[in-house]
Each structure stands twice: as C-alpha cells, then as structure tokens.
Prior knowledge:
The chain is built from 17 helices and no strands.
Amino acid sequence: MEFLLGNPFSTPVGQRIESATGSSLPSEDWALNMEICDMINSSEEGPKDAVRAIKKRIVGNKNFKEVMLALTVLETCVKNCGYRFHILVTTRDFIEGVLVRSIIPRNNPPLVLHDRVLSIVQAWADAFRSSPDLTGVVSVYEDLRRKGLEFPMTELDGYTPAQAPKQVKKLKAELEVVRSNLTMMSDMMSQLDPVTVKQADMELLEQLYTVCKEMQDRIVKAVPRLSEEKLIEELLATNDEMNTAFTRYHRFEKRITNGQNSTQKSHTYVNLMDLPDSGAASATSDSSQSLSKSASLSSQMARLSTSEAEDINALLQKASEQSEVDGLAQAQGNRLHTGTIPINQSTVMDDIEKWLDLDDDYEDYEDTDGVTSEEFDKFLAERAKAAERLPSLSASSHDINHSES
C-alpha cells in the first residue's frame, strides 16, 4: 500500500508530523502541532495525509516516546479539526488496527501508553456516540468492555464541547480550594514550632499536603490538553506555588525528624531544590508557648467554612477514586509500584490480541477481512470459560524504564 501511495512522511503535513513526533524532541512542540491542524483544515488531502503519517508513526513502533508524541498530535487534531478528520480516525479499522494494536502484549507497552490509548478510546466513544457516522470507535469500546478490559478513570477530556465549559469551571473552583489549602499550609508552618508541634496539627498539615499533591498531579495531566492560554498560565502559576509550599513542607518535616532548634523560622525556606521525603516524628511539649500556638491554630481551624471542608474531603475522595483503575485492590499496589499491567488486564489483552488475529507484519493489517460474527461469538464463549479460571492477582515484573527502545 505504501509503495502505491508513497512515503506518508513525504507530504507537507506528513513532514511536519514526522518532525512533531521525533524522539529527539525534549517535549511536545505545541506550535508545530497547531500548524499541523491548520494544514489539515486548509487542504483537501490534509486529513488523509495526516492519518497516514500518524498511523505510520504508531503501528509497529517500539520507540514508545514517538508513539506517545504521535498520540498527542492525534488528540490535538481531533480537538481542532472537523468532520473530515474525525470520520477517518473513528473507524473500527483505525481504532483496532492502530490504537488497540499499539498496546497488545507482544509489544510490551509501558503502563502509561496502555492507559493513554484506553483513555483516548473511551473519550472518543463518549464524544461521538451521538454521531451515526462516527460510531466505529463506540463499537470497539463496547467490545473491549465486554471482554473484561477495565478503562482508566477520565478527568478533563475536553472532547465534548458542551461539557468543556463545565469542566473548566470545575477546575477553576478546585484551584481556589487548592490556593486556600496552600495559604493554610503556609500559615501553619509559620506558626508551628517543629520541635513542639502536636500530633493533631501535624496530621492536618500532612492531609493538606496530600490533597495539594494530588491536585498537582491532575494539573500536570491537564495542561497539555488545554487550549485556553490564560487558564494554562493560571495552572502553571499554581503549580509553582505548590512547589514552593512543598519545599517548605519537606524542610519543616525534616526539622521535626532532626529536632533542630525552633528559632529558625519556616517561612525563610524558599529554595526550590528537590529534597527527599522524611518520615515525620511527633514531638510534644507542655510549655505555655506550645499551648498558646496550639490554641491559635485550633481557633483558625474552627473558623473553616463547611464548604471548604467538604471541598477538601471531596478532593481526597476523588484522588482515591482516580487511583482505582481496575477496581481490584490486590493488583493496585503492585501496579502503582512497578508501572506494569495487572495479571487480569494482561490476560484480557492476550485474548484481544488473539481476537485481532495479528500477523507478524504490522503493515499488512489493512488487507485483512476483519472478524466474523461467528468468530466473535466463539471468542466471547472462550472468554467466559477463562474468567472462571482466573489466577490470583499479582503484578508482572517488567521495567517501564526499558520500554523505550
């Protein structure tokens, strides 16, 4: 097929996609990504040329950095291009032959790529479910769910225009809560003495830190998916504030462990160098100075509004829900520590690979006749029998750091 159509990277848009997905890039080139979208929208062959180039970069590529960059270009084009592009990338052939194929077990994909692909499939299925011409992705999504594949929790996907304003508004509201928490953390560290801090006060400080850290993780994921410059600037500024507060927190925590002299004021720690985490050791004192500071802090906490407290609890609950990718507690711990796909997920992906009936030559997938209804029914029956013999959960041991070749 490539012999007849030529090198996908030889077209103007293909050349830019090749540049935007090269492994030598330190990070995403957003200016180039937007230029690619403009070229797709302004030329007749732009959508087809772009899809061919993206497919070439993803299919059979063991350089997972290039694959991740190609997925970023793909997502950016879906958000900024119209129907002519959407109808090409939401077909069953593209979803199965390009996206799902990239995370089959034989490719040994890293967890971040595995979840990224599943998130894209899920987001597109939700966004295009009501468009009759774009429901190929919906069919694949439903098939994968019936096979037992668990999809990651979605956050600020940005694919459904009607939902985007609500999501942005919600994100801004959460930022206000985070800023309030950061201010509270700063005030506490300025008033508390690391040597005489009470256990209850330290637990509250740790809770605030945990909430803010979870929100920082969400910010890091959300920034590349946003197009509103002011909101991006606001998120980055908040991220800087978090880093400053976290540095102070780690130093405060370290002073508790080391039992340093309390005359040093915590608000002087503004160096943003990375510091190792230290376990907090509680220290108490019966002096009147400690009682006075504790009473002042308790008074401050008593004045917290109910809504703010509810926001903190809500964020904690959301952070907990986001960590449950497959809902199986035994697999969760190993997955978080090793970055690998749990046994049950890997087994499902093995079955999906058999279902796709892949050839060793990845470039030949377009010539296959697809899967018949009889074959698919047979697969589902085999899958049901296999479910009864599922082994106990344990994590696989491959290292994600060696994923990128």
